[in-house]
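Incident log, support desk, overnight shift.

02:14 A customer reports that sequence design results differ from what the structure should imply. Their input is reproduced verbatim below. On-call engineer (initials T.W.) acknowledged and began investigating.
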């Protein structure tokens, strides 16, 4: 059928068929990519990702500002800095509730330490605090 003889319904039908065949072709290509990408070996996408991750890990290990810890029981860590720190500092957290309970405990310990260290004074002192009498003229 020539294009001049096609009605709008015929053109729509042809366009839908063309789109369906293109979609099927793309799906086949994607499946082939997934199958070939899953293979191990040099040049595969998975191998390239592993290499990138190794480079990033090496940079993090060399950076002195980063403290790396491994998940596990308290005190088990692969980093030298974390090994020298106390067992509480190198704890790995698996739940946010354990993190926040530990944070709350540390904060209350610090407040108690400050309060017991300076008897007669408030635990929180502001060096910039001024009284109204010092400002009067």
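02:41 Re-run completed on a clean worker. Output:
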């Amino acid at each position: 059928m020539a294009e001049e003889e096609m009605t709008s319904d015929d053109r729509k039908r042809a366009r839908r068929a063309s789109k369906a065949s293109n979609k099927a072709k793309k799906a086949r290509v994607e499946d082939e990519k997934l199958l070939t990408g899953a293979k191990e070996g040099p040049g595969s996408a998975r191998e390239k990702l592993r290499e990138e991750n190794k480079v990033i890990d090496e940079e993090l290990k060399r950076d002195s500002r980063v403290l790396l810890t491994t998940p596990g029981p308290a005190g088990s860590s692969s980093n030298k800095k974390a090994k020298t720190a106390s067992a509480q500092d190198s704890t790995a957290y698996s739940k946010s509730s354990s993190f926040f309970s530990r944070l709350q405990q540390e904060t209350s310990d610090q407040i108690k330490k400050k309060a017991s260290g300076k008897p007669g004074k408030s635990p929180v002192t502001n060096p910039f605090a001024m009284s109204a009498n010092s400002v009067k003229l």
